[in-house]
């Protein structure tokens, strides 16, 4: 039975997604919207999920892991209105980070498919 090997992510997209996940975790206090509990919980929980998904890519790239990031990015873009988040800095943070997470995931999926197409 092969054991998964731990290695740091080789692609810059993984590093960026990690940083965005960590940023989400600390953003309520950095941007001072920590007094809005829904926004704080949403940022911290979504940030932890993004970091966890990126940790799964350490062993082997799987396209479905990037699709989770697509869903998380779309969630971040829409959550200010779904969750009724009032603070403008929280709204802006969620939309910008969501767009970046979404773009990085879609780019990584496209890039993986492009490289797999070159091997045939």
What does this structure look like?
The chain has 120 residues and is mostly helical. The protein has one domain. The chain contains 4 helices and no strands. The two termini are 28 Å apart.
Share of helix, binned:
over 70%
What is the radius of gyration? 16 Å
How many strands, which pairing sense, and closed or not: the largest β-sheet?
A: none
Intertermini distance: 28 Å
- Global shape: elongated
Domain unit count? 1
Summarize the helix and strand pattern as letters: HHHH
**Total number of helical segments?**
4
Number of beta-strand segments: 0
Strand content range: under 5%
Which stretches are poorly predicted, pLDDT < 50 over at least 5 residues?
none
* Average predicted local confidence, pLDDT: 86
- Secondary-structure-based class equals mainly alpha
Topology:
Layout: H1 12-30, H2 37-56, H3 63-82, H4 88-118
Helix pairs in contact: 1-2, 1-4, 2-3, 3-4
Quick tags:
120 residues, mainly alpha, elongated
Short synopsis of the structure:
By secondary structure, the chain is mostly helical.
């Amino acid at each position: 039975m092969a054991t998964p090997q731990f290695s740091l992510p080789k692609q810059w997209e993984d590093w960026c997604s990690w940083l965005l996940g960590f940023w989400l975790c600390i953003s309520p206090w950095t941007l001072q919207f920590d007094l809005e509990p829904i926004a704080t919980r949403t940022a911290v929980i979504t940030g932890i999920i993004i970091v966890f998904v990126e940790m799964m890519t350490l062993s082997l790239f799987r396209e479905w892991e990037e699709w989770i990031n697509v869903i998380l990015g779309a969630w971040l873009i829409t959550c200010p209105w779904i969750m009724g988040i009032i603070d403008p800095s929280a709204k802006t943070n969620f939309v910008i980070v969501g767009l970046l997470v979404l773009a990085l995931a879609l780019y990584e999926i496209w890039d993986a498919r492009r490289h797999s197409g070159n091997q045939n």
